[in-house]
Design brief:
With 401 residues, the protein is α+β, with helices and mostly antiparallel strands. The chain folds into two domains: 244 residues, Thrombin, subunit H (Beta Barrel); 122 residues, Roll (Pdz3 Domain), CATH 2.30.42.10. Helices cover 18% and strands 26% of the residues. It is built from five helices and 18 strands. The strands form three sheets. The chain has a six-stranded antiparallel barrel. The protein starts with a helix and ends in a 41-residue tail after the last strand.
């Protein structure tokens, strides 16, 4: 028995030693196989990739002391405003201190008749000239058809036909944990740059994007995020936790990146083809800065979406699309990826009674000025004319819509 146990032990040692020596070779084979798959993805996608270059345009500027003048003062006049910053007229912001948005960067063929998808990041400056280099080497002038400044997508058009079009993976096929390859042409060279990662989350950024830890940067924004079969999982775009056309740029190469999947692209691209651009949506209000634990409306622009439906100063926003709103930051997060023209369901509270209204968000250029507000204003007892129209709050206090 002892001899049999000794023989079995010796055999186990031999097998273990053999397996241990064989592991490095096995790992090498796996790594080499993965490398071949990644190179195959680049080779397969190369005909569909587009190198995008821009010339000219104005650099977006940050808010300065000039912006702090009284809203009603003519250009070049007025003293710096002593009112709360929240009273400054509604405006678009760049959303980041990042100051390079002039390419080159990446795009991908969207349709055979010359439409190219890329990121709106590269067009914040409204460049005077745009050129693209196709996968077959042709360099062509491109027109910016339209752009989505909220979800950072842009559509270009070149005078070309019979372009090769990549295969897209259905959004339902995208799984957390699967490999993802980000490709780009923004750094030049004949071969696309590659970044390997995984899909780390789905339905991020208010349901607009898939998340990846593959490194994304200005050179591959607008390029494809692909699976190992060479199917497009999404278009790489910069998205951040605040509004602004450059929001999210500061996170590049951080290991947290985003791509718009097929389901979202199919909703946006047809409207872009029609020349319809998307802009940030606004409610057209300012909140009481003294109320840090709630969103109490201090004033509404005239006209504005809220004023148009009769929302009054002193009303409180408690929910957006069923999402609880407890402070102004949550309000921004609930709205920053919803473009102007889309309708949202807002639950308000007036004198303790909750009621819901549907509000169509507006572009900032469609908002009027903020009417004067008499001070002090007690949000609990709004100083509003009795004959001013407004949505009727339900008589019963039961239910929170």
């Amino acid at each position: 028995m002892k001899q049999r146990i000794a023989c079995l032990f010796a055999l186990l040692l031999c097998v273990t030693a053999f397996a241990y020596e064989d592991v490095p070779d096995a790992d090498l084979a796996v790594n080499q196989s993965l490398q071949r798959m990644i190179r195959d993805v680049a080779r397969k996608m190369k005909p569909f990739l587009v190198h995008v270059e821009t010339v000219g345009g104005a650099q977006p500027v940050e808010r300065s002391a000039e912006d702090e003048k009284e809203p009603d003062a003519p250009d070049g006049e007025g003293e710096p405003s002593k009112r709360p910053r929240i009273q400054v007229p509604f405006r678009e912001t760049v959303g980041s201190t990042f100051h390079v948005a002039d390419g080159p960067t990446t795009g991908i063929v969207y349709s055979a008749d010359g439409y190219v998808l890329t990121s709106s990041f590269n067009f914040v400056r409204d460049p005077a000239l745009i050129s693209v280099t196709l996968g077959d080497g042709r360099r062509l002038a491109a027109d910016l058809v339209a752009r989505d400044q909220v979800r950072k997508l842009a559509l270009l058009k070149v005078d070309a036909t019979d372009l090769p079009v990549p295969e897209w993976a259905p959004t339902d096929d995208v799984r957390i944990g699967q490999w993802a390859v980000a490709l780009g042409l923004g750094f030049g060279g004949s071969e696309p740059s590659l970044s390997l990662g995984i899909i780390s989350a789905l339905n991020r950024m208010a349901g607009n994007a898939i998340q990846t830890d593959a490194k994304l940067n200005p050179g591959n924004y607008g390029g494809p995020l692909c699976d190992l079969s060479g199917r497009v999982l999404g278009i790489s775009v910069p998205l951040g936790q605040r509004p602004g056309e450059l929001a999210g740029i500061e996170m590049y190469d951080s290991g947290v990146g985003f791509a718009l999947p097929l389901s979202r692209v199919e909703q946006i691209a047809p409207k872009l083809k029609e020349g319809h651009s998307f802009y940030r949506g606004w409610l057209g209000m300012v909140v009481d800065p003294k109320k840090t634990d709630e969103v109490a409306i201090l004033n509404t622009a005239d006209p504005s979406p809220l004023r148009n439906i009769g929302v009054k100063p002193g009303d409180k926003i408690v929910e957006i699309e069923g999402r609880k709103i407890r402070h102004f930051g949550q309000l921004v997060q609930a709205l920053y990826l919803i473009p102007a023209g889309e309708e949202v369901y807002v639950t308000l509270e007036r004198k303790g009674v909750a009621f819901g209204v549907k509000v169509t968000l507006a572009r900032n250029t469609d908002l009027g000025a903020l009417p004067p507000v008499e001070e002090p204003l007690d949000p609990a007892e709004p100083n509003v004319p009795a004959d001013e129209p407004g949505p009727e709050a339900p008589e019963s206090e039961e239910g929170d819509e």
